[in-house]
């Protein structure tokens, strides 16, 4: 028997090689033509705390969301099993180390106190004595097949047979997980070898890992077969881009002509700048792409130097997360006042304050739309998946220059750290719009020429011009004259109306589902994947819903959203968001007058899973006004 | 400009609203003269300022001007310069702006050695907010607006610049315009981060460090035989520590002139150029990013550049 999609978790200590297992498997599944998505959950810690990767691989689609319960848990250590045993479905598989059967949950120092307390009160009731062995036995009685492997003997065999240096051998646990997952899902050895070859350029490391993965594959296959074997892929892509959200945005910025990126290190934004630095110098057939990537002393310097670079004429951006964005807000106001095209890629994470630095949230929407004192126009785009993030990042650079205003590109940690398969982006489907440029100016130049809301722009070096954060006249000099104030204020603000009239509303919000749907989910950002998956599941159960995905929050697509909301009864509209306040629903009310009264919210730091969303939608449809989701370790 | 420019060519026609007698007038006068003598192209010259009385400087100079946020002139200037290293970028900031709210940026510029000139309007008080103590006002001093004597110790701007890595460190006095003009020219000609601490009496709020005070004490380092130049890299620490000690000479005699100059440290632009081969020839601001609205990087180039992310699905 074969199945269409497998959800699995790889778990282990942070820094223990989980990322390697995940990368190799992701490439291997993609090579075999399967769609993949994998979310990484980790503590704010470098080594030792429990980390896991939750992935889905599918034979029929490029998956966009994850679900519980899972089919397979592959554990590097006992803590992983103690943390995730409840995630396993009937008929699922547990790969664990038999050498750890005696280890007791109460003696695991890295475990969160709350989890230990939950286990302490739960285990006596289900007859588990606290050891891994007894928990595995219990799981066996609940329909989970334990795949016990002796990690130590696998490694010591490999050490002998493949010539691994003894001190290095513990680094190969990742290969055990790779072998076990490949065997159970029926992934061919060629694909495993492909994934390993991509991961390990050093022949020796490749050989060692392949040796271990192979021996685990044959051991697992001979005993268990391939009970989770995937059916042949029907996706039909000849090639796939496999990337994290951070990387997708970095690639898009390069395609979009980015020439200056500044950043101050912050999770989960910094990886984007690392990738940009890696690709800072690309020279091709008749073109050069050189990006200055500057690690600044703080976020104030990051945003302000990006603004400076934009004044000189470079396409310019910075990337940050909540605490960093707060520091950038002052600079953002200056950019608004001075009509500077600058992009801030804003990776949302758990707040407030430093909140949950490595966990996901969508609680910075209102802060983005309203950031900074005074009034100034800005564009706020929010991406729902990797493909959107790619094209949105290019558009962010375009909108910034076309409308001469700051653009905030909202993504979130879920997207940033999730690796997904997507069609290879096609740069020829993108445009570069540099807006109204004058080039070199002889004679007097008015940077803020009042004859139209969007004044022709010259770069520093092309004309003499002035800028100031104070209110200014057409030339850029300070003025406090009351009438001049009104004229320039209106000129500035009117640019947002122009953006509103030019950017099609369909670009800013998308309706998914049948026209005559019975209910509507209203969401944004990474909610998109879970919402679409939940809708198709609900529709298979006879519940016909639609999903309205808002992708630009300023200028808000008011008419389109109002029109769609008005088609549904108030108790059939449900906001789905990763925050407490249903922030996008508040903006919908502000812009359309329609109050969204029902909500499904998750602010635990973990992504919304398809299955929990399906359940919550049913609860709301039967009367509940507010559901707070909590699944996920 | 066909003819040799005169200092007045660099004066904007705006009314300058600094207090009559303000030390800042000497600083802009020296800038006009320096720019004229260097025949500076007004389009290629950018004056960047922060907030406060000194913040208004760009509006009074007829070259491009960017009047930014409190404390942030250096980061703005850094972005402007790195995106187009062909520009000549001069920062003007107050002592509160550069050493209070902007102190982190001040230090970072020294570490990078970006080819910028920083002119600090040093009057020991916050003028535009009416006379509060700035980071350069000594402890126990009570200038006339202060309700109580200052409780905080001063930072020594020259010493801080030397220890932060500035490769040109000088002090000027706004009443000695010609001398200051020469310092500004030398700072512009220097390739790397240049800092000039300008003693600049605030006639409204500082009744201690007045013209009279400085006129009696100021002397020129070059006339006293001071050699600021680092001979070679092995001489850098020795020269820096001599200059550092000299920076603390204050009281009956106050030195002005170039304290320290090191031409052996690569500028930040040179450091970037070592990684980006086109950087100095075609800077980021001038690079072509599209052809008729289409990105210069096409599908084939994308695949080649990012092959690490692309998986060819196996056939069969």
Strand order of the largest sheet of chain A: 6-5-4-1-3-2-16-7
CATH topology title of chain B: Rossmann fold
Structural domains of chain A: how many? 4
Q: What does the main sheet of chain B amount to?
A: 8 strands, mixed
| CATH A-level architecture of the largest domain in chain A | 3-Layer(aba) Sandwich
CATH superfamily of the largest domain in chain A: Pyruvate-ferredoxin oxidoreductase, PFOR, domain III
Structural class of chain A: alpha/beta
Mean pLDDT of chain B: 97
Radius of gyration of chain B (Å): 22 Å
CATH topology of the largest domain in chain A: Pyruvate-ferredoxin Oxidoreductase, domain 3
Second-tier CATH architecture of chain B: 3-Layer(aba) Sandwich
Q: How does this model look, in words?
A:
The complex is a heterodimer of chains A (633) and B (316). With 633 residues, chain A is of the alpha/beta class. Chain A folds into four domains: 5-224, Pyruvate-ferredoxin Oxidoreductase, domain 3 (3-Layer(aba) Sandwich), CATH 3.40.920; 242-429, Thiamin diphosphate (ThDP)-binding fold, Pyr/PP domains (Rossmann fold), CATH 3.40.50.970; 436-503, no CATH class; 508-628, Rossmann fold (3-Layer(aba) Sandwich), CATH 3.40.50. In chain A, 40% of the residues lie in helices and 21% in strands. Chain A has 21 helices and 24 strands. In chain A, the strands form four sheets. In chain A, strands 6-5-4-1-3-2-16-7 form an eight-stranded mixed beta sheet, with helices on both faces. In chain A, strands 11-8-12-13-15-14-21 form a seven-stranded mixed beta sheet, sandwiched between helices. A six-stranded mixed beta sheet of chain A has the order 18-20-19-22-23-24, with helices on both faces. In chain A, a hairpin with an 8-residue loop joins strand 2 and strand 3 (50-58). In chain A, helix 6 packs across helix 8, helix 7 packs antiparallel against helix 8 (203-224) and helix 18 (527-540) crosses helix 21. Chain B is of the alpha/beta class. Chain B has a single domain (7-271), classed as Rossmann fold, CATH 3.40.50. Helix content of chain B is 30%, strand content 18%. Chain B has helices at residues 24-37, 73-83, 95-101, 103-112, 157-164, 177-189, 211-217, 236-247, 268-273, 299-305, and strands spanning 45-49, 64-67, 88-94, 117-122, 125-126, 132-133, 168-173, 194-199, 218-220, 254-261, 290-291, 294-295, 310-312. In chain B, the strands form three sheets. An eight-stranded mixed beta sheet of chain B has the order 2-1-3-4-8-7-10-9, with helices on both faces. In chain B, strand 5 (125-126) and strand 6 form a beta hairpin. Classes of the chains: A alpha/beta (633), B alpha/beta (316). At the A-B interface, helix 1, helix 7, strand 7, helix 9 and strand 9 of A face strand 2, helix 2, helix 4, strand 12 and helix 10 of B. Strand 17 (466-468) of chain A pairs parallel with strand 2 of chain B.
């Amino acid at each position: 028997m074969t199945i269409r999609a497998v959800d699995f978790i790889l778990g282990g200590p942070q820094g223990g090689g989980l990322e390697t297992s995940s990368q190799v498997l992701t490439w291997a599944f993609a090579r075999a033509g399967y769609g993949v998505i994998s979310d990484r959950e980790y503590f704010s810690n470098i080594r030792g705390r429990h980390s896991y990767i939750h992935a889905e691989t599918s034979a029929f689609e490029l998956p966009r969301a994850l679900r519980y319960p899972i089919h397979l848990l592959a554990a590097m250590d006992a803590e992983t099993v103690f943390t995730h045993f409840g995630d396993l479905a009937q008929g699922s598989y547990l790969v664990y180390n038999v050498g750890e059967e005696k280890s007791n949950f109460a003696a695991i120092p890295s475990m969160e106190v709350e989890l230990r307390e939950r286990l302490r009160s739960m285990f006596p009731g289900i007859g588990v004595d606290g050891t891994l062995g007894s928990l595995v036995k219990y799981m066996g009685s609940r329909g989970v097949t334990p795949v016990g492997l002796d990690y130590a003997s696998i490694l010591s065999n490999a050490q002998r047979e493949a010539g691994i240096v003894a001190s290095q051998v513990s680094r190969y646990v990742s290969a055990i997980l790779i072998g076990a997952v490949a065997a159970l899902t029926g992934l061919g050895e060629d694909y495993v070898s492909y994934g390993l070859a991509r991961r390990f350029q050093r022949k020796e490391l490749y050989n060692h890992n392949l040796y271990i993965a192979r021996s685990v594959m044959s051991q697992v296959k001979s005993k268990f077969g391939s009970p989770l074997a995937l059916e042949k892929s029907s996706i039909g892509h000849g090639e796939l881009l496999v990337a994290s959200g951070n990387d997708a945005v970095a690639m898009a910025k390069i395609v979009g002509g980015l020439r200056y990126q500044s950043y101050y290190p912050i999770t989960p934004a910094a990886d984007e700048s690392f990738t940009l630095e890696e690709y800072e110098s690309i020279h091709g057939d008749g073109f050069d792409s050189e990006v200055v990537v500057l690690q600044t002393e703080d976020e104030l310097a990051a945003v302000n130097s990006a603004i400076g670079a934009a004044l000189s004429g470079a396409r310019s951006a910075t990337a940050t997360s909540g605490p960093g964005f707060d520091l950038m807000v002052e600079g953002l106001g200056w950019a608004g006042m001075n009509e500077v095209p600058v992009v801030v890629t804003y990776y949302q994470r758990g707040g407030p304050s430093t909140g949950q630095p490595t966990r996901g949230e969508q609680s910075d929407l209102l802060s983005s739309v309203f950031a900074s004192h005074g009034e100034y126009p800005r564009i706020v785009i929010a991406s729902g998946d990797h493909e959107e993030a790619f094209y949105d990042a290019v558009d962010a650079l375009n909108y910034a220059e076309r409308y001469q205003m700051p653009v905030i590109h909202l993504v979130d940690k879920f997207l940033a750290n999730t690796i997904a398969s997507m069609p290879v982006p096609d740069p020829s489907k993108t445009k570069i719009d540099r807006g109204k440029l004058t080039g070199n100016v002889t004679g007097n130049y008015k940077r803020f020429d009042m004859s139209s809301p969007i004044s022709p722009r010259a770069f520093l070096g092309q004309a003499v011009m002035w800028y100031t954060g104070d209110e200014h006249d057409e030339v850029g000099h300070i003025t406090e004259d009351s009438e001049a104030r009104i004229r320039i204020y209106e000129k500035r603000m009117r640019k947002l109306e122009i953006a509103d009239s030019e950017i099609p509303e369909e670009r800013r919000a998308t309706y998914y589902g049948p026209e005559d749907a019975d209910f509507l989910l209203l969401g944004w950002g990474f909610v998109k994947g879970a919402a679409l998956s939940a809708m198709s599941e609900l529709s298979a159960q006879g519940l016909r819903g639609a999903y309205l995905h808002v992708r630009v929050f300023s200028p808000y697509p008011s008419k389109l959203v109002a029109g769609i909301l008005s088609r549904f009864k108030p108790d059939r509209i449900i906001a789905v968001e990763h925050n407490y306040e249903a922030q996008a629903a508040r903006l919908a009310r502000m812009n359309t007058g329609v109050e969204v009264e029902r909500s499904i919210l998750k602010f635990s730091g973990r992504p919304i899973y398809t299955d929990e969303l399906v359940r919550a939608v049913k609860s709301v449809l039967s009367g509940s006004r507010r559901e707070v989701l909590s699944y996920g370790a | 400009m066909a003819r040799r420019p005169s200092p007045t060519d660099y004066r904007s026609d705006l009314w300058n609203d600094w207090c009559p007698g303000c030390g800042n007038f000497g600083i802009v006068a020296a800038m006009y003269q320096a720019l004229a003598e260097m025949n500076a192209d007004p389009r290629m010259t950018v004056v960047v300022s922060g907030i406060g009385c000194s913040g208004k400087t760009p509006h009074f100079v007829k070259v491009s001007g960017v009047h930014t946020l409190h404390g942030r002139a250096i980061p703005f200037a850094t972005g402007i310069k790195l995106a187009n290293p062909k520009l000549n970028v001069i920062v003007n900031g107050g002592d509160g702006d550069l050493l209070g709210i902007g102190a982190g940026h001040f230090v970072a510029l020294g570490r990078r050695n970006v080819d910028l000139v920083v002119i600090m309007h040093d009057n020991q008080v916050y003028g535009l907010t009416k006379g509060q103590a700035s980071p350069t006002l000594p402890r126990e001093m009570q200038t006339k607006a202060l309700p109580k004597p200052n409780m905080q110790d001063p930072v020594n701007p020259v010493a801080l610049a030397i220890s932060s890595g500035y490769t040109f460190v000088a002090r000027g006095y706004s009443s000695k315009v010609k001398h200051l003009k020469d310092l500004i020219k030398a700072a512009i000609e220097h390739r790397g981060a240049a800092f000039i601490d300008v003693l600049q009496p605030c006639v409204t709020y500082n009744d201690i460090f007045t013209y009279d005070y400085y006129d009696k004490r100021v002397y020129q380092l070059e006339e006293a035989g001071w050699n600021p130049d680092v001979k070679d890299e092995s001489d850098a620490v020795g020269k820096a520590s001599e200059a550092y000690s000299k920076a603390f000479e204050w009281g009956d005699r106050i030195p002005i002139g170039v304290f320290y100059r090191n031409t052996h440290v690569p500028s930040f632009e040179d450091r970037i150029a070592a990684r980006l081969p086109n950087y100095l020839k075609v800077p980021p601001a001038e690079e072509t990013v599209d052809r008729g609205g289409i990105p210069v990087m096409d599908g084939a180039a994308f695949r080649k550049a990012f092959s690490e992310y692309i998986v060819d699905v196996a056939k069969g």
